[in-house]
Specification:
mainly alpha; ABC transporter involved in vitamin B12 uptake, BtuC
Length: 347
């Protein structure tokens, strides 16, 4: 009987579906605590953000540390939309449209930022994207947005300065953020978004455009010499990466009842955290980003019982994963050991 050979992409889909089924079985059996259940959606949206960042860092070859800013745009634009229409549209349609709004705004900002920024390289690009993430967070903290019978009102001073009618509602209350957003996100929807994200990214990589993007990463001058439009493909990859981060932000904004643009939610450390998932999962390795995000997000929470040693164990795991992925000796050992299985399968 002829063996069915699965591609790397199919193995990634099977892995995600298997994890979903296992988690659903554990939840149905009552094995998972309420605390662990509450961590499932955040784990998935950080995995989505890591896949999006890997498209920029691993496939395009440009270092961006401002993806928390695109998450912030997706979260707040979708949350504002959901609060405006929550009494008008049913939940399913509202959440679907909120996704469209969040992804569209994140992609728009990614496109606008990408036009000037992607002319820079290396550390300069990283610094500018970092500044963008911090600027977005601080701008949102300065905006007050409300709605009444006369329409939308905005102010940069205070909620009272908007001059809302008696029945008006404050939607975005400056540093206090947005309260009362419908909690439409759940584990099933998050995993579905992750599968769609993987489908888009992995098919892009295998496409003609994906090969052009990787050629820019490998040798910009050679790619330009054969007629590849460097600017166009860099902006394309960066915009898609920002849109994926916006999708993660939509899940973020609809998973909590009080959304605030704080450093703990969308600050510099969050961008670095997502970058850590990408690096430790393997730069350019899409499946590795998903695995690293899942393990490294859940590990500190699962070690809370060992509170005194929790961060020590977490640090040891980070170092071990870094050595396993990048140390020359470990890479030779991996190729020697796993190469046998690949040769056996090919035979």
């Amino acid at each position: 009987m002829k063996k069915i050979k699965l591609s790397k992409e199919h193995k990634t889909y099977i892995m995600v579906i298997a994890i979903y089924i296992i988690v659903e079985i554990l939840m149905a059996a009552g094995v998972l605590s309420s605390h662990i259940k509450g961590l499932l959606v955040p784990m998935v949206y950080y995995a989505i953000a890591a896949v999006g960042l890997n498209l920029c860092v691993g496939i395009l070859g440009e270092l961006s540390i401002g993806h928390a800013g695109f998450m912030c745009i997706g979260a707040f634009s979708s949350a504002i939309f959901s609060n405006l229409v929550k009494d008008i549209l049913p939940g399913g349609i509202r959440f679907l449209l909120a996704f469209v709004v969040g992804i569209a705004f994140a992609a728009l900002f990614g496109f606008l930022i990408g036009i000037p920024v992607l002319r820079l390289n290396g550390d300069y690009l990283a610094i500018v994207t970092l500044a963008f993430g911090e600027i977005i967070k601080n701008v949102i903290n300065a905006v007050y947005l409300g709605f009444d019978g006369r329409g939308l009102h905005a102010s940069f001073t205070s909620a009272s300065a908007m001059g809302l009618d008696a029945g008006g509602t404050t939607i975005l209350n400056g540093p206090m953020g947005i309260n009362g957003t419908p909690r439409d996100a759940n584990f099933t929807i998050a995993m579905l978004v992750l599968l769609i994200t993987l489908f888009i990214v992995q098919n892009l990589i295998k496409s003609r455009d994906g090969r052009a993007i990787m050629s820019i990463r490998d040798n910009r001058i050679a790619a330009e010499s054969i007629g590849i439009d460097i600017t166009r493909f860099k902006i394309l990859a960066f915009t898609i990466s920002a849109a994926i981060a916006g999708a993660a932000g939509v899940l973020f904004g609809h998973n909590i009842s009080s959304l605030q643009a704080t450093s703990g939610n969308f600050g510099y450390n969050i961008s670095i955290l997502i970058l850590v998932y990408v690096v430790l999962g393997g730069i350019g390795n899409i499946r590795g980003s998903v695995i690293a995000a899942g393990i490294l997000y859940m590990l500190p929470e699962m070690l809370r019982g060992l509170n005194a040693y929790r961060m020590l164990i977490y640090s040891i795991v980070l170092i071990a994963m870094m050595l396993f992925n990048w140390a020359p000796g470990a890479r030779k050992w991996r190729s020697r050991v796993f190469g046998r299985f690949v040769r056996k399968e090919a035979a």
